[in-house]
Amino acid sequence: MVMAAEAREREERVRKLTFDDVLRMAEIGIIGEVERVELVDGVLVEMSPEGVDHAGAVSELATRLARVYPEGFQMRSQSTLPIGEHSFLEPDVIVREGRWTWPTPADVALVVEVARSSVARDLSEKAGLYAAWGAREYWVVDLVRREVVIHTDPARGRYGSVRAITSGTVEPPGCGTSILLEDLLPPPDLIVG
Prior knowledge:
Layout: H1 2-13, H2 19-27, E1 37-40, E2 43-46, H3 52-68, E3 73-77, E4 81-84, E5 87-89, E6 93-97, E7 108-115, H4 119-123, H5 125-133, E8 137-142, E9 147-155, E10 158-165, E11 169-170, E12 179-180
Parallel strand pairs: 7-8
Antiparallel strand pairs: 1-2, 3-6, 4-5, 6-7, 8-9, 9-10, 11-12
């Protein structure tokens, strides 16, 4: 019983960081420009380093999506996405309408994470965070399994529909066209680890 009480007391003394706190920390240099972090429930989480396969897949995906979406949509690569007072993520690609503001779920057509070493986290923790925020469609491009896992129908912190596409095409939401899955994935011999 004493240990449980001590744990509760310690938890009460922990101060959760806010998105604004982290912005200020970056502005004054506490967090460096090149540091890769996300804020999850008030805690800074270090991100995995990016491999050449990941970087290439993100670039190719953003290019392909820019070609299929009509004017008025914007692709943002590895850009901060505030999803609450105490959380922000850095998805690999966001497709959104509008500019110059932090996007709301209504602005965002698609959120994409490209994953090699972070697949488990992207399919569980991040899927829950994006669903709770209200992202209508969330993709995980799994470089190792060579598939795209598509999440739709967010409700109560989870997605009602999750399906893996292992061949053929994927259809980005709201653009009425499709992209060959193979065009989104680096050659198999380029996959690291």
